[in-house]
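Predict the 3D structure for this chain.
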Amino acid sequence: MADRLESKVTPIFGDDVLVSMMVKKSRDGKKKDGLIRVCFLDSARKEIVADVVMSPLTAEAMGNILMGSIKKLDDIMAGKKVDFPKPPVKKQDETTYIG
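Done. Predicted structure below.
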């Protein structure tokens, strides 16, 4: 697996968000499945720039990550020092001198 994920998607600015929930029953009516839909909007152009459907577990993880990022950004904007995690360093195989 790659050390870093590289995006092949062009970033698009969205200044508003719309969130909805979908609940779907199975054909037998016994099992339910829920999904969260998040639409990012560009209010100047009045159009949806991204539409993402995710599981509740993914939505919860995204909420936690966003809250942590907002807290770090607030600390940076307030002039506090923030420690960013350092990328892991790959260790090369140790070689011994033969001679």
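The radius of gyration is 22 Å.
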